[in-house]
Specification:
Elements: H1 3-12, H2 17-32, H3 39-57, H4 61-68, H5 71-93, H6 110-123, H7 128-152, H8 164-187, H9 196-213, H10 223-234, H11 240-264, H12 268-285, H13 291-308, H14 316-328, H15 345-378, H16 382-401, H17 411-446
Length: 447
């Protein structure tokens, strides 16, 4: 038996040490994304080092790259590398090559690192259990932290020592993904680890509670769309009475969260009421100093910046200079100086990198969204549909989050988008390959 054949059989049985390592790192990344300040960074660095070591130990790295990557993978790589490359070039022309300030943590290079990890993980894909366990630990952990901070420490907004908006948005996303994974296991109960199904349900509740207690309201704008997409994906497979039961449980959960925050006097519901007042005051009195009013001010400023430099935008440092100039001329509220971004991924990108940046951003979102949607529509395997739906939910959620917050300029936001979307894609392709091998084996048996 040749070495290549034996390696392939080991991988197909899930016994490759590289695959076990990738599974462990995937679970650690999802678990620690919100729980430990340096978690996302340490796990990503470990994954990169493992990938480099694995590639160096292989005798024919270019050969297995060509074998494993297909046209869809190349589109992913192109989208990631284009986003990273344009960001690096934009920072270079502003003489701040690796970011706006010392806290940027080399963020322009992260999509490039993610592209390299995607190649490695396509060769040795992690197991789905890594993602599921990560969702359980991450979602439950975020919920416990939020409850402790809000009800024990009396914090104004639960945030685990970070910006409350990314904390709330990512907690919401982890909760939704845990819910989807739980529903997938309910459809056709998986014999291994039966306790994992209720644990995922608990994680879903905890993640949603953490988001609610963070007071983050922008992310909840995407919830109706995420719920509708999930319903459409499960409707052909789950009995109607089970769907109605789940919908009723969802409404009871939302009602309980609203009641919980109403008792404490603060939460999403109160912030929604304040947002309505802010919009009214901005429209009638021109008050640009409130939370929503300042966002509207910055979005208008971003539109003016795009009109002045439509092709390539103002650049990383140029946006700051243009913002300060508009403040000095009385065209923008002085409160905008407190923010290093324009509170919208689309507006911020358009102002910094012009129409070219907008096109690259749309590809950064669009390529994964189109490919996930294609597999969700075509696949008849429930587990593959769950992974395709999860990946699509990640992309749609970040588009929704990015309407009112520059999530891709936040360290956890960008790492969360890259890591979660890439993980769903690699697991989806691995599941499809597994189904293909089974179909081939069954065909040979029949013949």
């Amino acid at each position: 038996m040749s070495r290549a054949t034996s390696e392939r059989q080991i991988v197909e049985r899930g016994g490759s040490p590289w695959r076990w390592g990738n599974t462990l790192l995937l679970g650690a990344f999802v678990s620690l994304l919100l729980l430990i300040p340096w978690g996302y960074k340490a796990v990503s660095l470990a994954a990169l080092m493992l990938a480099i070591a694995g590639a160096m130990l292989r005798r024919d790295p270019t050969r297995w790259l060509r074998q494993r990557l297909d046209r869809e993978d190349r589109l992913w790589l192109l989208a990631f590398m284009a986003f990273s490359g344009l960001w690096c070039l934009d920072a270079a022309r502003s003489s701040v090559f690796l970011g706006v300030n010392s806290n940027s943590e080399m963020m322009p290079l992260w999509p490039l690192v993610a592209a390299g990890l995607l190649v490695w993980w396509r060769r040795y894909p992690p197991s789905r259990e890594g993602l599921w366990l990560g969702l359980v630990v991450g979602g439950v952990g975020a919920g416990v932290i939020a409850l402790y901070e809000r009800f024990v420490l009396g914090a104004y907004r639960a945030d685990n020592g970070m910006n409350a908006i990314p904390f709330g948005n990512l907690s919401l996303l982890l909760g939704v993904l845990a819910l989807v994974a739980m529903l997938g296991r309910l459809y056709r109960p998986i014999p291994s680890w039966p306790w994992l199904t209720p644990a995922l349900g608990l994680s879903a509740v905890a993640g949603l509670a953490a988001s609610f207690l963070s007071g983050t309201r922008g992310g909840w704008l995407a919830v109706p769309l995420l719920a509708w997409m999930s319903y459409g994906a499960f409707r052909p497979f789950l009995p109607r009475h089970q769907l109605l039961q789940l919908a009723g449980a969802g409404w009871l959960l939302v009602a309980a969260l609203v009641a919980m925050t109403a008792i404490t006097g603060y939460g999403v519901t109160q912030r929604v009421e304040r947002a309505i007042d802010d919009v009214r005051n901005y429209a009638i009195e021109g008050d640009g100093g409130s939370s929503v009013g300042l966002r509207l001010e910055m979005w208008q400023a971003g539109g003016r910046m795009l009109l002045e430099k439509p092709l390539l935008g103002w650049g990383e440092e140029g946006l700051v200079e243009a913002r300060d100039m508009m403040v000095n001329r009385g065209l923008l509220h002085p409160g905008a100086k407190r923010h290093d971004q324009l509170h919208s991924d689309l507006v911020d990108t358009a102002a910094r990198r012009g129409l070219l940046g907008v096109l690259v951003l749309l590809a950064f979102y669009g390529v994964p969204a189109v490919l996930f949607a294609r597999h969700l529509r075509r696949s008849h395997d429930m587990q593959a549909r769950i992974l395709a739906l999860s990946g699509l939910l990640v992309v749609i959620a970040f588009i929704g989050f990015g309407l009112t917050q520059s999530m891709l300029r936040d360290v956890r936001g960008l790492s969360g988008y890259l890591g979660l979307s890439m993980a769903c894609w690699v697991l989806l392709k691995a599941r499809m390959a597994e189904r293909g091998r089974r179909s081939t084996a069954e065909t040979r048996t029949v013949i």
